[in-house]
Amino acid sequence: MVINKKYRALGTIIDLTVYNPMDEKLLDGAYELIKEYEDKLTVNRTSSEIMDINNASGKEAVSVSEISYKIVKKAIEISQKELGFNALIGPIVKLWHIGFADAQVPQNVEIIRKLALTDPFSVILNDEKRTVFLQKKGMELDLGGIAKGYIADAIKDYWTNQHVESGIINLGGNVLLVGTPAREDHLWNVGIQSPFSERNDPLGILKTEDYSVVTSGIYERFLKIAGKEYHHIFDPKTGYPVANDLASVTVVTKKSIDGEIWASLGFYKGIRETLKMLYGQKNVGLIFTTKDGKVYITENIAEKFKLTNQNFFLEEDSVLH
User: Fold this and answer.
1) Distance of CA 157 to the CA centre of its chain
2) Distance, CA of 268 to CA of 84 (rounded, Å)
3) What does 254-288 look like in DSSP terms, one character per residue?
4) What is the pLDDT of residues 82-138, one digit of tens each?
5) Handedness of CA 183, 288, 280, 157 (dihedral sign)
6) Which of 11-15, 56-60, 176-180 has the weakest average pLDDT?
7) Percent of the chain residues topping a pLDDT of 70
8) DSSP conformation letters of 124-150
9) Residue burial 245-258, b: 16+ Cβ < 10 Å; e: rest
């Protein structure tokens, strides 16, 4: 037996499922948690704690809740490693505005001007006062590349504390599994999103324990002008969409926030460079798809994945060691 509900939040469809115990309050409680986090973290409204920080850029430090401060600090720490994830990418994202009616290909001079506002070292954090100060006027935090994972992990903690033995958190393709399914092998079957198909036509099936499965791809939002496509995953050094042959990156990790970060790094660094960074990281698995339909997969999850989509192919060198 199972209980399932769908909600609208975070700009997507939220799909929550619990098998044991079957209590609708656990689903509604998770949704209330999502709304609380979204109210604090969103940049798609005129008012939130993150918007308060952005609106005060170049003026003053802003005190925020523990929830907001914790994720901002994590995001800045990762951004300062300069590995492809940058929480200050907001001005570039808004300049292109891909996925919205006013999307455009900006002039190079505009991009250069906005890049000057994306320096993650121009942020002052005060742990004691829980304040965030963006030093340059016009700087903007954008936690879109990390917030879903952060919220999914919070829901899992909530459900675990409520003794949920088995459940699924799906935040618009960002899947986090809770507990053990009622199957003989005690593993979950997760459909991996294909970068070129609808959601009911997956790339393949992954067998996994109660891990997070995050997929990011160029299929999500893009702008097409004069026969050329521009996707929404930006290179924080150039201000242009990342230029490589990748169509999607799927990351399997214990925590969803780590999956979000590795997905960004995977796109930015590409297959070989990401593989070097993965050395010694046994609990991180990745599946890469290229624009020409080839699939690469790290060896730690290769035997758990079955390719089911005939538009893609695996070859002898597809398993990454």
Assistant:
1) 18
2) 5
3) SSHHHHHHHHHHHHHHHHHHHHHHTTT-TT-EEEE
4) 988 999 999 999 999 887 889 899 999 999 999 999 999 999 999 999 999 999 999
5) negative
6) 11-15
7) 98
8) EEETTTTEEEE-STT-----TTTHHHH
9) ebbbbbbbbebbbb
Report how far apart, in Å, the C-alpha atoms of 220 and of each of 206, 262, 292, 300 are. 21, 17, 17, 27
Let me know: does 32 contact 56? Beta carbons within 8 Å: no
Phi, psi of 204 (to 5 degrees): -175, -175
- pLDDT tens for 262-316 read 999 999 999 999 999 998 788 999 999 999 999 999 999 999 999 999 989 999 8
What is the per-residue pLDDT for 178? 97
Q: Report the candidate in 179, 186, 183, 173 with the shortest Cα–Cα distance to residue 211.
A: 179
> Which residues, including other chains, have CB under 8 Å from residue 124's CB and lie 6 or more apart?
61, 131, 132, 133, 135
Place of tokens 């109210």: 39
For residues 193, 197, 198, 200, the Cα torsion angle rounded to the nearest 10 degrees is -60
Q: Measured between alpha carbons, how far is 69 from 132 in angstroms, rounded to an integer? A: 8
pLDDT tens figures, 197-253: 666 679 999 999 999 999 988 876 678 887 788 878 899 999 999 888 999 999 999
Cα separations in angstroms, 238 against 73, 82, 99, 140, 184: 24, 13, 20, 17, 50
